[in-house]
Design a protein that fits this description.
This protein is an alpha/beta fold and 246 residues long. The protein has one domain (2-245): Metal-dependent hydrolases (TIM Barrel, Alpha-Beta Barrel). It is 37% helix and 17% strand. It contains eight helices and nine strands. The chain has helices at residues 23-32, 57-70, 95-100, 117-133, 137-154, 171-181, 196-202, 225-233; strands at residues 2-3, 5-9, 37-43, 75-83, 103-107, 159-160, 184-188, 209-212, 244-245. Strands 2-3-4-5-6-7-8 form a seven-stranded parallel sheet. The chain has a two-stranded antiparallel ribbon with strand order 1-9. The protein is globular and about 55 Å long. The protein starts with a strand and ends with a strand. The model has no long low-confidence stretch (mean pLDDT 95). The structure holds zinc ion (ZN) (2 copies). One zinc ion is lined by residues 8, 10, 81, 214. The site of one zinc ion has 5 residues, from loops.
């Protein structure tokens, strides 16, 4: 049992040397691990530290096009891991992204251009206090959940990445919104979310799952062991994992 598609891989086009490998190095590793489809998903344009640059879109697209021809045994998608930018669910899934990407992932990250100071204060500062000291934890849980649910309701995305990572959330509400909007929930192999308890809750809804490596260097492309272990521990029906070859 292994994944045969990996929809979450960062490449050298990330700012500040955040990810190390070229797209071709990633493709070769993916072929070596027996994958038949991958997506190159750098952080969205609003990620101040690690996003890719808008001016690189044509170059990334043409590299992917050339590699798709050179290696017909694998399908390479141009994607993005977009960012949640406000409490009301704004994201950086904008026209440039929608027009160019084959697949859109979205998640909560730090170091992004929040819509307003209030969004930064709530989504970063108060969350740190809530996580570390339990300060207004339940209020934060509600706000965070609302931000993610609104992002799901108001944006076109395919996969919600690492739900529950870095933020306290009500995972059940997120699962309901994912079901309603037909968005796949990610079991991220690099982060610990979805964790077993979260999968256990989400499995009660009509949602699909993807185990992705969230690789930042070619060596981990196609890694899935920790994600699969969590899915098995949660007794998830493995048919619901879209990229698992049983
Ligand atoms: Zn992420
Ligand atoms: Zn990522």
């Amino acid at each position: 049992m292994k994944i045969n598609k990996d929809y979450h891989i960062h490449s050298k086009f990330s700012k500040n040397n955040h990810a190390k490998s070229s797209i071709e190095e990633i493709v070769l590793q993916a072929i070596d691990r027996g994958l038949d489809e991958i997506a190159i998903t750098n952080h969205g344009l609003s990620h101040v530290l690690y996003g890719f640059r808008k001016k690189h879109i044509p170059q990334i697209k043409s590299e992917i096009e050339a590699l798709n021809k050179k290696y017909p045994e694998i399908k390479i998608l141009f994607g993005v891991e977009a960012n949640i930018l406000s409490l009301s669910g704004d994201t950086d899934i904008e026209k440039d992204i929608i027009d160019n990407c084959d697949i859109i992932l979205c998640g909560y990250h730090l170091f992004v251009k929040y819509k307003s100071f209030n969004d930064f204060w709530n989504l970063v500062i108060l969350n740190r206090l809530a996580k570390r000291f339990g300060f207004r934890k339940e209020i934060q849980r509600k706000r965070n959940t609302q931000a993610i649910v609104s992002a799901l309701n108001n944006n076109k995305m395919d996969i919600l990445t690492h739900p529950g990572d870095k933020l306290i959330v009500d995972i059940e509400e997120i699962a309901k919104a994912a079901e309603k909007n037909n968005v796949i929930l990610e079991i991220n192999d690099s982060h610990t979310h979805l964790n077993t308890d979260e999968i256990n809750i989400c499995k009660n809804y009509e949602v699909k799952f993807a185990i992705n490596s969230d690789s930042h260097i070619k060596d981990t492309v196609g890694s899935f062991e920790s994600g699969l272990e969590r899915a098995i521990n949660a007794e998830l029906d493995l048919e619901k994992i879209i990229n698992l070859k049983i």
